[in-house]
Amino acid sequence: MIKPNNLVSVAAALGLVTALAGNVEAQQRYKHATGPSGGYWFIAMGGAVNVLNQSSLGVRFDAIGTRGSGENTRAIGGSKSMHFGLANIPTLYNAKNGLGDAFKGRPAKSMLILGKYLQQRQVFYARQETGIQTVIDLVGKKFSLGPRGSGAELANRNILTALGIFDSVDRKYLGFGASGRAVANRQIDAFASGNSPCTNPTLIQASQSRPVRLLNLTQADYSKIAAKYPYFSFATCDLSVDSKLREVKGFAGSVNVVSFGTYYISNDQVPAQVAYDVLKSLLTPKNQQNLIKVHKSWRFFSGEFEEIAKLGMKIHPGAVRYWREKGVNIPSSVIP
User: Fold this and answer.
1) Is residue 16 part of a domain?
2) Per DSSP, what are the bridge partners of residue 42?
3) Where are the beta strands (DSSP E) in the chain?
4) What is the pLDDT of residues 229-246, one digit of tens each?
5) Residues of 247-268 as b/e, b for ≥16 C-beta within 10 angstroms?
6) What is the number of domains present in the chain?
7) What residues are paired with 118 via a beta bridge?
């Protein structure tokens, strides 16, 4: 028989165990994909993880470096080995429909959209000394598509394919930082990646070594691209769009490019309350302003879901609650 004094001890021990168990549960960890080193996703999403871990949400977030949109989408919407991150429309389109090398026959059915991060521009650039003027001039030239499995690789592959020159380009698959350095060091001739809106650190740094030229797409080029891949839009890069183009040595004026949406995504393993808390924390005025200081791309975050609706995708229940509270008119087709 347990004596009264011992009953008190047992009860206290059980209370401690319960408290510890509750603390373990409260400290559940979520893996937050970032992006490749040298790209702005790595910087911007690293900032997001810092904000979330300082927000007393009762859970913890681990920043995980990735190769970009393709890996993020497979890990979040496919294997569910990660829980939050960015992905762009070319990748999401393939993932939703089970297309391309990464998703053929294996659609990522678990991915859910939290919000639109931004509309980014795919900017092609080459060293001026190469004489390359337009994207079509890449025929026979050494061009990095970006790391295999990244959103940059897929976007570049689709653009070059639509223009009919994919097989005629000397293709390399280098990381973001490595691609910029290779352009500057004359190891390759050109590179293109999704920028916010038109620049990133890799482009600016490459131009400081040797002047670069941003490559123009004609309206005829765009028509070919949009006919095959309708999620691309026609866009412009000039100083009115991105003042940091002043830091690109060799930039001479306005160029035409294509753009596409980038989205903040999660999956159906993440509870609605956690998804809601994540959005609410990141987008409080104070936290969003701090994130904009980390990277300017954070100022574009929105509840714009028309593009997602056209592609038949769904948003997270926690996001439905958050954006409704903000007065956003959510298309009914995207609500799960």
Assistant:
1) no
2) none
3) 29-33, 60-64, 85-88, 111-127, 142-144, 170-172, 190-195, 212-214, 233-237, 255-267
4) 988 999 999 999 999 999
5) ebebbeeebbbbbbbbbbbbbb
6) 2
7) 262
Residue of 233, 48, 32 lying closest to 122 (CA atoms): 233
Instruction: Band the pLDDT of 277: cuts 50, 70, 90.
Output: very high
Residue 182 covered by a domain: yes
Instruction: Kindly tell me if the per-residue pLDDT of 324 is higher than 80.
Output: yes
Q: Which two tokens stand for residue 268?
A: 């159906």
Cα–Cα distance, 250 to 15 (Å, whole number): 68
pLDDT (tens digit per residue) in 185-195: 999 999 999 88
Q: Give the position of tokens 């001739």.
A: 189
* Distance between CA atoms of residues 248 and 187, nearest Å: 20
Instruction: For residue 1, name the pLDDT band (cuts at 50, 70, 90).
Output: very low
- Quote the mean pLDDT of the chain: 90
Tokens 């028509």, residue? 223
Domain limit, last residue, from 261, 279, 309: 261
Residue-range definition of the domain harbouring residue 254: 120-261
Confidence of residue 149 (pLDDT cuts 50, 70, 90): confident
DSSP classification of residue 270: S
* Secondary structure of residue 19 in the 3-state scheme: helix
Cβ-contact 302, 276 below 8 angstroms = no
